[in-house]
């Protein structure tokens, strides 16, 4: 369930054991990892875009398993020791399930945010960054994703600034060093409170949380990178245990509290990195195979 780094890796490992497997993906292969402008910390690749990394991984996975895009699981229940999966296209019976449902980008939660998605608001600089070359762009957030988007947009020739609600970034030090080296301005202790424009975004209102002073800034686009929400609703509906943040809890073998149900990737929380997702996918697959009923 899910064709991101965790799901694809799990498919490789289970498929190599000769089992009949299928990866169901409600969207396109790759998930959020497709949006990574640059992957520079995965062993074996000095640097590679998220899209290219996922393309290579999917090509390998297809050697061992069938990957189905745009098929969403809507219900899961156990009966007679098997798992019955209902999707928007049909039904499946399985001896084991590996959930790799990932996360969804968190929104700012302000008026007209949905209206401007794709019309100035974006979550993927590698997808549409070129549209903003030479234009004013804001990146909202302070973690690794925000830093990576800002650096990528700068390299594309955008006039980019970072808006962060705190006075320090959460991004890794090497990313912060690159931001400073490239002279990317950071608007500290600030949040975006209002979006303005007609069909396209024209400006935003930024509020300083210390002084409570608002300032309107003309922009062509903003990239939102303020975290993710785990896609764990379906797992919760079948009784899988979640932590206080909604992430699925597992043991060291990626097992949930329901037999034959395993989990891997960002939906487990913790260190949300591609290399970790791949590792968890492998662990889940090996244990699913070894413990088949």
Automatic annotation (TrEMBL):
Looking up Gene3D superfamilies in the UniProt record yields: FAD/NAD(P)-binding domain
Q: Where is the FAD/NAD(P)-binding domain?
A: 2-281
Keywords from the UniProt entry? Disulfide bond, FAD, Flavoprotein, Oxidoreductase, Redox-active center
Q: Name one GO molecular function term.
A: oxidoreductase activity, acting on a sulfur group of donors, NAD(P) as acceptor
- SUPFAM superfamilies documented for this protein: FAD/NAD(P)-binding domain (SSF51905)
Indicate what this protein is called per its UniProt record: Thioredoxin-disulfide reductase
